[in-house]
Write a structure and sequence with these properties.
The protein is mainly α. It is built from 13 helices and 2 strands, in the order ααααααβαααααααβ. It has helices spanning 16-29, 39-50, 55-69, 76-93, 101-112, 120-123, 150-160, 172-188, 195-209, 220-235, 248-261, 283-288, 294-305, and strands at 129-130, 313-314. Helix 5 crosses helix 9 (195-209), helix 7 packs antiparallel against helix 8 and helix 10 packs antiparallel against helix 11.
Length: 327
């Protein structure tokens, strides 16, 4: 049709390095829920990295493996880690992206299809409120979004996001603007399970959408727990104890994602690039930064011990799946 250049079916150019980083990042992200992959994913992933199969074929192979084994019984936690890791590789192999809440929901549905304890939540936002005790907050919980306004909250967060431009190769302001947006979306926590992994994939796609190289996965290889801790610390406020949200760690983590994707990294302008440390913050450092005095810590711990169970929630019951989510 026509005489001009035609649209072409997109196929990502093969790169052993990109695929290797992607696999390691996808596997590392499972640590946010205490999960590890099995040989079912690892062996197929080796073929994907070597260029023998595509990301879609990797996902299909792992899906087929569990479809055949489901009748004989499987380790449900390994199953979740394997399937989600393969689907992350497939999602990041694509160049398609639209900046919208619909894309965020589509990523979640793609990653956790058939894995939610209650299948209703594969296609819907949660309809109950949640809390989760955090080690880095002396077992306090972040205040997550109210279920009654999740859709409106997401629409507002997306509509108000405007990435700051880089200044002469200095990405500091840009990173801070992205970190603020990602922290806001994560705090809303629209899904019943799988929010951190969904946000991590969306973040990588967003960076690519903004012109950074496709591979931004490396920092998730060994630091996915630190990524989640950074999100927690960026969203926690306790006025009586003098604790304010601290985005420092999240800024540094996103800076490391960008630095790892740009190979070689750009020449440093001021002392703000690359980030001061590309080893993401550990739980101990998160607790030390802006921590209250000893009496405040005791108050937090005493208050936390008096609360209910970790991840307590009040929710309606929907039909359950035979494949529960991880922790």
């Amino acid at each position: 049709m026509g005489t001009g250049s035609e649209y072409e079916r997109y196929e990502e150019p093969y790169s052993h390095e990109v695929r290797d980083r992607r696999v390691r990042g996808a596997r590392g992200l499972q640590a946010v829920d205490g999960l590890t992959t099995s040989a079912a994913f690892d062996e197929a992933a080796e073929r994907y990295v070597a260029g023998d199969i595509s990301a879609r074929e990797l996902s299909d192979i792992v899906d087929d493996y569990y479809d055949q084994k489901v009748e004989r019984g499987v380790n449900r936690y390994s199953q979740e880690a394997d399937l989600v890791s393969a689907r992350i590789c497939d999602a990041l192999d694509s160049n398609g992206f639209t900046f919208s809440p619909a894309t965020l929901r589509a990523i979640h549905g793609r990653l956790f299809r058939g894995l939610m304890e209650e299948p209703f939540y594969e296609q819907h936002y949660r309809d109950y409120n949640i809390s989760k005790r955090e080690f880095v907050l002396a077992r306090e919980s972040v205040a997550y979004g109210d279920y009654a306004s999740l859709e409106d909250d997401l629409e507002t967060a997306f509509s108000e996001f405007s990435p700051a431009p880089a200044q002469d190769g200095d990405y500091t302001a840009y990173i801070a603007s992205v970190a603020d947006f990602i922290a806001r979306v994560w705090q809303i926590h629209p899904f019943a399970e799988g929010n951190t992994r969904t946000v991590a994939v969306f973040l990588q796609q967003l960076l690519h959408f903004h012109g950074f190289p496709q591979d931004c996965s490396e920092a998730f290889d060994r630091s996915s727990l630190q990524f989640r801790n950074a999100l927690v610390r960026a969203n926690y406020r306790n006025i009586p104890l003098g604790v304010e949200p601290d985005p420092t760690f999240l800024n540094e983590f996103i800076g490391c994602l960008i630095a790892g994707a740009m190979n070689p990294p750009p020449p440093p302008p001021p002392a703000t690039w690359p980030p001061p440390s590309c080893s993401a913050p550990r739980a101990s450092s998160l607790r030390k930064r802006k921590a209250p005095d000893d009496s405040g810590k005791k108050q937090m711990q005493s208050h936390a011990s008096a609360q209910g169970n970790v991840g307590s929630r009040s929710r309606p019951k929907h039909q359950k799946s035979s494949t529960p989510m991880g922790k």
